[in-house]
Amino acid sequence: MKKLINKPEDVVKEELEGIAKAHPDIVKVFFNPNYIVRADAPVQGKVGIVSGGGSGHEPMHGGFVGMGMLDAACPGEVFTSPTPDQMLEATKAVNGGAGVLHIVKNYTGDIMNFEMAAEMAQAEGIEVESVVIDDDVAVQDSLYTAGRRGVGTTVLAEKICGAAAEKGYDLKKVADLCRRVNANGRSMGMALTSCTVPMKGEPTFELAEDEMEIGIGIHGEPGRERMKIKPASEVVKLLAEPVIEDLPFKAGDEVLAFVNSMGGTPLIELYIVYNELAKICEARGLKIVRNLIGPYITSLEMAGVSITLLKMDDEMKELWDAPVKTPGLRWGV
Amino acid sequence: MKKLINKPEDVVKEELEGIAKAHPDIVKVFFNPNYIVRADAPVQGKVGIVSGGGSGHEPMHGGFVGMGMLDAACPGEVFTSPTPDQMLEATKAVNGGAGVLHIVKNYTGDIMNFEMAAEMAQAEGIEVESVVIDDDVAVQDSLYTAGRRGVGTTVLAEKICGAAAEKGYDLKKVADLCRRVNANGRSMGMALTSCTVPMKGEPTFELAEDEMEIGIGIHGEPGRERMKIKPASEVVKLLAEPVIEDLPFKAGDEVLAFVNSMGGTPLIELYIVYNELAKICEARGLKIVRNLIGPYITSLEMAGVSITLLKMDDEMKELWDAPVKTPGLRWGV
Amino acid sequence: MISKDAVLAWIRTLADVYHENRQYLTELDSPIGDADHGINMDRGFQKVLEKLPGVEDKDIGSILKTVGMTLVSTVGGAGGPLYGTFFMRAGMAIDAKEELSAEDLVTMFQAALDGVIQRGKAELNDKTMVDAITPAVEALREAVSSGASLSEALSKAAAAAEEGMKATIPMLAKKGRASYLGERSIGHQDPGATSSYLLFKTAYETWGQAN
Amino acid sequence: MISKDAVLAWIRTLADVYHENRQYLTELDSPIGDADHGINMDRGFQKVLEKLPGVEDKDIGSILKTVGMTLVSTVGGAGGPLYGTFFMRAGMAIDAKEELSAEDLVTMFQAALDGVIQRGKAELNDKTMVDAITPAVEALREAVSSGASLSEALSKAAAAAEEGMKATIPMLAKKGRASYLGERSIGHQDPGATSSYLLFKTAYETWGQAN
Ligand SMILES: Nc1ncnc2c1ncn2[C@@H]1O[C@H](COP(=O)(O)OP(=O)(O)O)[C@@H](O)[C@H]1O
Ligand SMILES: Nc1ncnc2c1ncn2[C@@H]1O[C@H](COP(=O)(O)OP(=O)(O)O)[C@@H](O)[C@H]1O
Ligand SMILES: [Mg+2]
Ligand SMILES: [Mg+2]
Ligand SMILES: [Mg+2]
Ligand SMILES: [Mg+2]
């Protein structure tokens, strides 16, 4: 294992120390339990937005705390859902009296831990709404299973709902908007290499020099199918088509196109992927009206990409464009 | 070689197509010769700033074109300096009548190609100043050699000088400022893995599973020394101490600390590195007044980091904080 | 009867067992999960070891509830709420007791299982820890009600847990992270079912041998 | 005398030679450079091949200047300006000629070398292409002035270039990318000196054998 870390068991703690030192103007970091809140939390009268999940997906979620996006993030151990006590403390810290939205990615652990936290927060008199993001079309959806994973759409939901809360939307409106974003977003990812969980010290899976894995999750979960590597044009087709057909996205739709690095894939390749994605969207009559290109929801140092399309309406566009000031996403301010 | 590309020889062309499609609001991309200019170029009466270099360092330089930073960037083939015709066209395209600054990283190829371009531009009546960035302390400096490489300080110089030009500084003042930034910036990098040049198809060098290379360049150039991997705290010491001692940075100095990913190292590790760097700076009495953390001057998918410290004065701080709107760096607008 | 000391010994041994099996459980969690189950269980039980001295003189119910709460706040993932609930419900079920009869054990583990099912909503054959815990509790109840010795009853529970664990191999996962894999989850042993088997095995080894 | 066709043949063969040696030159550029010298030279000369038909009926000077300008605008890196200058100066030195004498060759290559030195400011023993070109031009001049046949003179130039190229192995680089390596540049053959050797070797093989 080759990583710029000290002891594997200290990775999350030291990362948080780094964040605390780097961005005191934007966030405050708390330890034991670990959570990150906006420097000016709680914002009185504003709906608070809390998200969280395992670490290893940076900048998500901690890097999205700040004006116009999240009020707090709860980082778990690497790839391990955080615990209810973190979420409870974060929820209390950002409650400005207008209630708190939990944005939860659809993983059994995240769901159960956030559920326990919401119960506890409600017991303390804080109004909590939870929205589950489940946008990964690589996974078969079904009532009888855990359903789809939450991936790229989470970032977009956090930005859009963060702007809505900043604008004064009430809890129910922010939660409904979040569900609408989730209902209109679809993602799929692939890996060229595995990631290595620091505490495990070895790659989660092995891919031969000429293999890739399609439909991968963001925790090194195996994907839909392993196959020989292909040119970017074909890889993008393998990702984009299931995404487009699932919603389905239709000619004339306005979309946000999000090309995400899994951590080890550099920007030069992301632009090549974006170029292919733009061609496919054009051929299908989808109009890309916004985009996001970079490493925003990563899987440690995994090489690979994910593609997310979000069908946008005017409200979402306006909220997407609204000012945001976080360590990981910033504009307009 | 595992990359999300189509044909190796099309990498730069398709990357540029992707950039053109992704950011039409910020940049215009020209082909044959290849260069990227601000969408609103030339800005009349403003000093134009042009940089360039081999591709494979994204977002540098193309990702730094836009309001408050570069007016144009000339991307060469991967790791290969661009050619004078690109630079000449870019220089003409951004000349708003106040002259053009060429920010050149100190590599023989870049120097010679920019020199030829400057001669040609001057022959066409455009006033051109050139500033060479040579901040890499891993390389022994000497009058009799090619001197030091230009690395991380380039990004900082582009931001600061871009803001100065935007504010109306004249050509000589922008160039002097650029020299001052270069004189006050020092960098050093390291690699955990090699990068693979697409056209070569194989890693430039081989590192064993337990080895790292200290003092690496941004083109896969071998470094100062190969050694066993060490904890982040020691690695950061190996980078930061030569950087600090070279200027030298002294107790009480205000610095910008820039922790850069070489492309394959994810943000979680960068924050651990930043945490260590902040400790060292604190122990030495250096005051980190600004920071930049992320993949800004990369070496394809190489895993590793570089550290840059820039001694800042009030003017630099103000210019650093000024609004910038580029695909790769954005705030205040 | 199982003394409070025996309960404490079980928990301490369990911490050792999860520590020893950290890598093994994590490996099981690699092909069909995210390679952390052993790490998570170990982190949680090491924290439990730290917390134990502070509650040793309380009753068994309080001790088990503390174990559960500690797991909830240190394990994370799916394992944290599930095993946390397991021990909290176990503790609530036997309340202020200072020693446990065989019947108490049945009540306790049944309550623990009910908690896991309520929290995780998994059914039998979903390829989860429920597939190991359910047969273990059933075997325990049957053995106890048919008058078997505690040792025999625990031995049967452990054996049933082991069988349940192995039975997860051919299953197609319906819950948890493995379910994302669909058909590709088949052929792998469920890590959570394995940690549950270890829990019953350790109970047998700690309580059964002595009784 | 060397006809214009022979000059064109030299350039075309050179394009083939650089294409064949693309990987080799790139490998040489890996330990002490950035692994692109062969790729760069090949890209440049393939473009030259495309451009040649348009200037074939011009004089030799114009043809060489076109080669130089094409290299400048397609090779990039250090190789582009250096080989670009090499060919532009070569073309300027012999101007509008339609064939070249042995003396013209000396003049031409000397001018090319001067251009390279002026552009790159390298001295002998800096471990660059100058270390191959300089002895080649000297050997050529000496052979020509001592009345050797063109074939013999070119053979000597190629041999001197080869020796100069090999002599770069133990050198410590002072210019170009290899200089960043300091002591670690020792023990590696310079890629630019190698491409320069190939240039003279190809001149001998194209012009020498026939004459
Ligand atoms: N809904 C559920 N009900 C019961 N057990 C579950 C459920 N989901 C997952 N599990 C169990 O949890 C185990 C995985 O635990 P762990 O690796 O700690 O959590 P995570 O999957 O969040 O990484 C699985 O092997 C399975 O036995
Ligand atoms: N200043 C210089 N003068 C003469 N030749 C040089 C100089 N700098 C570099 N070279 C030559 O250029 C070669 C490298 O060319 P190339 O790989 O194309 O460029 P780059 O180093 O920019 O990648 C070196 O092997 C060396 O022979
Ligand atoms: Mg997990
Ligand atoms: Mg080069
Ligand atoms: Mg797991
Ligand atoms: Mg080179």
Structure, explained:
The complex is a heterotetramer, with two copies of chain A (333 residues) and two copies of chain C (211 residues). In chain A, the strands form three sheets. Chain A has a six-stranded mixed sheet with strand order 1-2-4-3-5-6, with helices on both faces. Chain A has a six-stranded mixed sheet with strand order 9-8-7-12-10-11. Chain A has two domains: 187 residues, Dihydroxyacetone kinase, domain 1 (Rossmann fold), CATH 3.40.50.10440; 129 residues, Dihydroxyacetone kinase, domain 2 (Hypothetical Protein Tm841, Chain: A,domain 3). In chain A, 33% of the residues lie in helices and 23% in strands. The longest helix of chain A has 18 residues. Chain A has eight helices and 14 strands. Chain A has 333 residues and is α/β, with parallel strands linked by helices. The mean pLDDT of chain A is 96. Chain A is globular. Chain C has 211 residues and is mainly α. Chain C has one domain: Serine Threonine Protein Phosphatase 5, Tetratricopeptide repeat. In chain C, strands 1-2 form a two-stranded antiparallel ribbon. Chain C starts with a strand and ends with a helix. The mean pLDDT of chain C is 96. Bound molecules: adenosine-5'-diphosphate (2 copies) and magnesium ion (MG) (4 copies).
